[in-house]
Design brief:
Strand content: 5-15%
Distance between the termini: 55 Å
Low-confidence stretches: none
Helix content: 40-55%
Strand order of the largest sheet: 18-25-24-20-21-22-23-19
Oligomer: single chain
Mean pLDDT: 91
Length: 896
Amino acid sequence: MLLTLFFSDVHADDTSIVGGKGANLGALARAGLPVPPGFCITTRAFELFIAELRDSDARFSELEKLDGTDVDAARRAAEAMRASLDKLPVPAEVAAAVKESWHRLGADDPLAVRSSATAEDLPGASFAGQQDTYLNVRGEAALLDAVRRCWISLFTDRAVLYRARSKFGHRGVKLAVVVQKLVDPDVSGILFTADPVSGNRHVASIDAGFGLGEALVSGLIEADLYRVDRRHHRILLARAGDKKFAIRSVPGGGTREEPLPESQRRARALDDAQVLGLVELGERVERLYDGLPQDIEWLIAAGKSFIVQARPITSLFPIPQSPAKDPGLRVFLSFGHIQMMLDPMPRLAIEVWRLFIPAGKDHLPTLRDPPRLSAFLLAAASRVFIDVTPILRVRRTRSGFLNVLSHVYTELARAVGALTARPEFAETRGHALGLVRAVLAIVGPIVRKVPVVLLTGDPAVRARRFDAAVEQIPAAVANRIHSRGSLSERIRQCAIEMNSAFGSIRPFLAVLASGLIAHRLIARETRGEWAQDVRGEVDKLLRGLPGNVTTEMDLAVGDLTDLMRTYPGLAAALDGRSWSDVRRALLDVDGGKEFLAALDRFLDGYGDRTAGEVDISRTRWREDPSLLLRVIAGGLSGEPGAHRRQHQAQVEIAKNAESRLVAAARRGPLGMMRARWIARLCRVARNGLGLREHPKFTIVRLMGAVRPEIIAAGEQLAARGQLHTSTDVWHLGFDELSNALADPTIKLESVATTRAEEFRRDRSKRPPIAISSDGEIPSLSDDREGIPANALPGTAASAGVAEGVARVITDPQREVLQAGEILVAPFTDPGWTPLFVHAAAVVTEVGGLMTHGAVVAREYGIPAVVSVASATERIHTGQRIRVDGTRGFVEILSVR
């Protein structure tokens, strides 16, 4: 490998040789874009420099131990590495190559010397500002010293900590150096070809200041801000900042701060023509990178614009790509927010849901049809989004949809409302007739059955039929899968079963829908004069609902806790062991066999559940019940039978509420008829809403039938050498798996590895609650009055006030909630709810009134506040907090 390369010899894929910055500058220069001339000192030169470090193995070993959580340890390791490197000179052969290229570039010119790491300016990670830059470098000695200091800056505290947190290795990252002629600018700044705040790809944003750009990049001045509508070439905003000084070159080398006169510091640095010209230049750069939004450092000198750096904007969340060809703005909702699981899912897990959801298919699929993916469930950054545009484009359905959404998930309704209020959305209209036909094809049979369920029959009998279906549907699916001869055929049958499963569940959804409607009808009926003193009883009907599979599961967990409490030696057998070790240890402890028998009975019913259970790739409790054992151990400090007593108390509250509502309904004319109607609605509501978890539980059990086949496929493909590891199976699709199982010559290692790396990068992305087809993520503020100062606002989800010690849990597989603590979590799903048995209250970062955590908290009668922004960052374990689930806020009462 050469030690230096001029930009004309550098290609876009030369990152491993010249680093991210060098590769981008080479690509820009070769494309004819205005880049100041220069050359790169390659990573081979850095390797020769590092090779002189005698204790390199020890130094790198210390760096590789870092996990990014211990700042002091990172600082010590980085400082030791820098101290060792600072003793080394530039290798002689490197110095000779640099001097030769420097003379070719122009030895009399001032230089900009910039670090260019191989893990920098990449599509998945920018690593912006992690290494050093030196400006107005003059002379041979200063150049070589700047190069050496750039190399050493690969190990600044911030760079080491950033790599450790991002799970990048330290040994594999190398540093090249970019040497350019320094252009002394009149104005410089940063251009984002997409709005970095809202994410809108049609809005460019420019920061600008006088002089060199270091003052702006370092945040030392308040820069000008310009925002431009790229579609119409129109300046939306031109706001001059308070630019106190400019950084200028010093004739002898280096830079200085130059105070600006009052007339200039608040004047615009760019006129309109310059602003639009920069946006046009940015669009040229963006086209070079296939439309990927760019973060561009630019400067203007003597009326000419230059680019000194360009990199992808890695902070933008990817836009779901709809197959629809009709024009106009589209709106996508986060499926993860609705399901209370924001983590990324691998390809196969996403495909399961795109097969299951019938929306976007010509008709409801059956076992006779080939599998088809939903056109309205789309993937982006390993998450699933729902395209709700057709519903929103019809005015009447939009208003109804937003009204329902506001009751179910307030923040989601606000986000969708903000996007549909944009003028771009109003430019297109949908066709009501086509929408009605599509919706009725799916929900029509449900809607037709609702009046029958509301008015006739025994709600409890219908609920028991759904209970039976939860067992029968997955069993029938498993039988059909196992009837297939080869593993390839079984995998294909798995896809067919998931594609047609909605049709099996749909007949029972009218019972659940009737429960929701009955509850709303009761709320409407109690607006009358007869109900003035009992209106507060309506929500109490939701306490202790009958037949809720998640509540019954949580009560069973409490029973296991009581059993463990009976035998003190059981808890000690759980510490620090794998599940196989724990199981063996329990067999030798008093009460262990009894406990394991009870646990096995529990797993027979609920073993297909887990935290994040909507992701089929997640290990199930049946395979490893470690989470359950931690929950059980965390509840040992509570009182025996407390969970059953609490649940029964909630049942009594609901029964008393029903009695008071019916008694009040008897008042006045037609009272007896009204009382019978209210009594009927109460029974329908409680039995129907008790089935709320049944559809999802059925799907989870269907996954339990499919998951073993996928695991077997991964093991077989890995054994044949078609995959590197069996777990790579989750990054493939059903068709790919089936075809590879049938044909051993098909190699999938490369595609699986690429997708696994994309999945790893997607972990760091936080999905928005909603996003538009031009990338805008609505910014929602909470300016409510009447909440205490410094309180964290959210959505009131379960009434009551609780005060206690906070326990922040982001991974229930590793952390334990002690009885009586307040659970603070990013989100919860059924796999989390065993924690609710011991919680005094619940706080989550996402969720609405009808999302899982809120419903379960109401059933348990514990206060809950959801949609508390950044709750897991602003609240810390051990703090005393007050949760007001009636008014919707959280107060932090003490520091740690």
